[in-house]
Write a structure and sequence with these properties.
The protein is mainly α. The longest helix is centred in the middle third of the chain and has 16 residues.
């Protein structure tokens, strides 16, 4: 990640008006908020944050603080509860006592569940757990190990859980293996949960299974309707938005429109956009104008950019100019670039010149390169020269060379010569080689000697091999074999196994039979089998070029 990209992520986080930790993680682009499970979250301060409904199972939470955090509906390993880590949470209620079980003691040790007898013993222990949340979590941990002969007993354990929230969680894990009558009871249990947050959560867990079910259509339709009703009844806007997101994929058109209307009325922009973005792909074309109107009215530029980006693939052609105008009006360059990049493939020809002019106004080299690269594949030939001019205005040589390289496929011979000269002036050798490699397939024959001279002048052995290997396939046969022999000698002289492996593998597809045999001999001399064996295997599999 380049420094400018890191700074852009930091800026997004600093400007975001979120109250939940995972929202910042999502905005920064470093982790999908729906996949926090099994991650390293040691020493994170979750105090005061809304963590409801998130799955922390398997996560390392040592040293974390949950003071006044909202954890209702979140999923944790039993040891987190047993160790009192949630004792200061705002809504944890009565403390859950420690109930050591075979499952709890061996939560991460699958070898404990190798035999049916061991699994049956564990299931008996689970059935004896007094606290229902722990009984449900322990049963869920056993589900992947259950043989068919124990399914009926597991269902009995699940149905013995009085609290509908935890009973539905356990039955959901068992759902694909349940008989129809038990599936109906799981649905009934979910619908009967009093708390709207947990009711929506329970129903959303069941919906993925209902789409391909043998249950009557009316039953499935009622489940979707009940799920949405429960979601829309949630008072907390973040939780309501998250519930809409979890349901969006399963809603029929009439329910989608109902959810869209509800999402539009959410006052918090972050929550409103999160819900609307999930619904946009499900909206009929006749409602896209309404969605675009909502997007243009969003005050926060980060959220407006996100909404415009989600709309781009779904807008009818007549609405694209209005969407582009909204994107171009965004002041922040990072957010404006996000919108422009998303809209670029859908811009009509008459807007391309305007878009190029707007890209040239972007001050950041990083953002200007991104925006230009998104436009290039869609430009008419008469605009390529203008695109080259925009690329050459990028002061940062790394991003300038990258912009020119992205144009290579479309450049005229004279423009290609200019681009090659610009690449040759790059001070960073790695950047120079990367740009040269991108341009290699499109270089005209009269420029190949100049490019080859640049590649041969590279000091670093690995980088030189990479540059030569990129150019070799495009050279005349006699010159190609000479360059490949030279590159192979360089690769074989590299002392570090990892670097030699990279160089040999890079050359492998282009080597003749005799040169490939020499490459394999060189690979066999590597001392580290981690690099030696895959290199030999790859080189052996390469076919000699014709």
């Amino acid at each position: 990640m380049k420094r400018e990209e890191i700074n852009a992520a930091i800026k997004r986080v600093l400007e975001a008006k979120r109250t939940d930790f995972l929202g910042y993680v999502e905005i920064a682009g470093i982790l999908d908020r729906d996949h926090f499970r099994n991650t390293n979250a040691r020493n994170v301060d979750f105090s005061g944050l809304d963590l409801r409904g998130y799955d922390f199972r398997g996560a390392a939470l040592d040293g974390c603080k949950f003071t006044n955090a909202l954890v209702r509906g979140a999923r944790f390993d039993p040891k987190v509860v047993e160790n009192g880590m949630l004792a200061d949470a705002a809504d944890v209620g009565e403390k859950i006592p420690v109930e050591p079980t075979l499952v709890g003691r061996h939560w991460y040790d699958p070898s404990v569940f190798e035999t049916p007898e061991q699994i049956a013993g564990a299931l008996a222990e689970v059935a004896s757990i007094g606290r229902e949340p722990l009984r449900a979590e322990a049963l869920i941990s056993l589900v992947p190990h259950l043989p068919q002969m124990l399914i009926a007993q597991a269902i009995t354990v699940a149905q013995s859980i009085g609290d509908g929230r935890y009973r539905v969680r356990a039955l959901t894990e068992l759902y694909p293996r349940l008989p129809d009558e038990v599936k109906r009871s799981a649905l009934a249990a979910a619908v009967s949960i009093d708390d709207e947050f947990h009711r929506a959560d329970a129903l959303s867990r069941l919906l993925p299974y209902l789409r391909s079910e043998t249950l009557p259509f009316s039953t499935r339709k009622a489940a979707v309707s009940n799920s949405l009703a429960a979601a829309l009844a949630i008072g907390d806007e973040l939780s309501r938005a998250d519930a809409i997101v979890s349901l969006a994929h399963y809603l029929p058109r009439d329910q989608t429109l109902k959810a869209f209307a509800a999402a539009s009325s959410i006052t918090d922009e972050s929550c409103r956009v999160r819900a609307l973005v999930a619904l946009v792909p499900r909206l009929p074309a006749t409602r896209m104008a309404d969605a675009l109107y909502l997007a243009t009215g969003i005050q926060g530029e980060s959220y407006r950019a996100r909404m415009l980006a989600s709309l781009a693939p779904h807008l009818p052609p007549e609405l694209i100019p209005e969407a582009y105008a909204a994107a171009a009006a965004i002041v922040d360059e990072d957010k404006r670039t996000i919108s422009l990049v998303s809209l670029a493939p859908y811009l009509p020809p008459h807007l391309m010149a305007t878009a190029l002019a707007d890209v040239e106004k972007i001050n950041s080299g990083y953002h200007r390169q991104r925006a230009l690269a998104s436009l290039v594949p869609h430009l008419a030939p008469v605009l390529i020269a203008s695109a080259v001019a925009v690329a050459r205005t990028i002061a940062d040589e790394y991003y300038g060379a990258g912009a020119l390289a992205s144009l290579a496929e479309f450049l005229s011979p004279s423009d290609m010569s200019i681009a090659l000269t610009a690449v040759a002036t790059l001070r960073d050798e790695g950047d120079r080689v990367e740009a040269l490699s991108q341009m290699a397939p499109y270089l005209p024959s009269d420029l190949l000697p100049e490019a080859l001279a640049e590649a041969s002048a590279v000091v670093g052995k690995v980088s030189r091999v990479k540059a030569l290997a990129s150019l070799a396939p495009h050279l005349p046969l006699d010159r190609r074999n000479k360059v490949l022999r030279e590159a192979l000698e360089i690769a074989m002289s590299i002392s570090v196994d990892a670097n030699r492996s990279f160089a040999l593998i890079r050359l492998g597809p282009y080597l003749t039979k005799s040169l490939r045999a020499k490459a394999i001999d060189s690979a066999k001399s590597m001392t580290n089998p981690y690099h030696r064996n895959p290199t030999i295997e790859f080189l052996t599999s390469c076919m000699s070029p014709q």
